């Protein structure tokens, strides 16, 4: 249990104790710096990859420099929540930052591709912890009523970092060295570490190392990390290194799913302190926020990945210009997240935000289907802005809805599970979108062969289509027009698939119950004895939850 409470606090006119403004300012500044680090590292290497591969003369590393980070980042996500519940938030986020900085230093000094990949794995482990712990700490520091605003601020920083990452990577690669993509993390990370060490005041249990290690659900961690890695690795390798029907990919998928099944059994029947408590999904209304969150991230990542392909293949834009065309999606989403957070703080309601957001997301993605080949660029930018607003408004409400539906003891588990769901949705979105696109391009091969000839048309077949976009501009005008129309039709089916997921999220939003986002805040339940003495989980429906009402209580909308 906590041995200290936050030291720097003020009592507001309504009688509630909150962190002082200075504490909030310094803490949020350091948390935002941490988020910026994690976001930058996710995208900064994309434009520096040719320089990195050229330095090591290792073409095979092109895929793995990005994949090593994302695989490690996704696989261990829920583990950080478990560790933070046992030993407290502050030491765990400091450890995550330290791990991230060690990985960054290793990458910056790397003289072989293998060393660089090891550094990227270490970075991914630390980056995962940073992302999780920032959201958990915000949830601990602020009430449900206030935390939406602060979560939105970090979402805004994440969006900005993700957007400027490729730009910085390109500048470093061309003007300095690609190694600066990693050197830049060190001063920023050290400042964030120092400020958090000095200013972060959160409860911390004095858990002995031996007792903490004994309390960890090791079987669950091994099954979950192993299963997630096998599934994500299969998605990463499928149709890139191996065919989908290859023994390697099929074995990874089968054993990955089997491991996740055993993980579910372990969490439900055996684990006393489960990594992902299955009672979080004990009813459709409790499970709905996670599925909505997954679907929305699925659509967002899919659009962010395939809209630049549309701009290059159909509109004839350069790689740089296609990135600029994506800014309306990212900027509108970031601003919408901040506006939604402010509304929820003032009103204490999240369902109206979710309803409006899902409507805009469904509208924006649906309008993409109706685009005509000759459609002006302005319409494309408007449609993706609508989708961006819809995604941005709904970045944080599902998290608040899930937290409000359970007890304060599960805050870290809810947050970590949401991040894990997002990681899986991100990986699957790109792969499934690629399968749809490649199948459509393969189906159009007959028409392309008739007009271009077999040799030329084969360059736009299936998995080669996305890689050979630059070849379109070299074709004679009539053939170029035909190929661009083919890409247009193939991508239209990709939009149809994403609209289906946006529609599913809209329907499931109706299942989410309303809870008043109260201003009172409860401290986290930490330590090794978080489960009830009989080993059964606390039932939110039988005790007062973190919003001060039972799960069967009336809503606040």
Biggest β-sheet strands, sense, barrel: 2 strands, antiparallel
What's the CATH H-level homologous superfamily of the largest domain?
A: MFS general substrate transporter like domains
The total number of structural domains is 3
- First-to-last CA distance: 34 Å
Cα Rg: 24 Å
GO molecular function, one term: transmembrane transporter activity
Organism: Aspergillus indologenus CBS 114.80
Region (Disordered): 525-557
Protein name: MFS transporter
Account of the protein in words:
- Pfam families: MFS_1.
- Keywords: Membrane, Transmembrane, Transmembrane helix.
- It is a multi-pass membrane protein.
- This protein is an all-alpha fold and 557 residues long.
- Helix content is 70%, strand content 1%.
- It contains 22 helices and 2 strands.
- It has helices spanning 21-43, 49-56, 61-75, 77-87, 89-109, 113-141, 144-175, 180-183, 185-199, 209-215, 218-237, 247-270, 284-313, 319-325, 327-347, 351-369, 377-393, 397-404, 411-443, 445-452, 454-457, 477-509, and strands at 9-11, 17-19.
- It has a two-stranded antiparallel ribbon.
- A hairpin with a 5-residue loop joins β1 and β2 (17-19).
- The longest helix is centred in the last third of the chain and has 33 residues, at 411-443.
- It is globular, with a radius of gyration of 24 Å.
- Residues 1-8, 11-16 and 532-556 have low confidence and may be disordered.
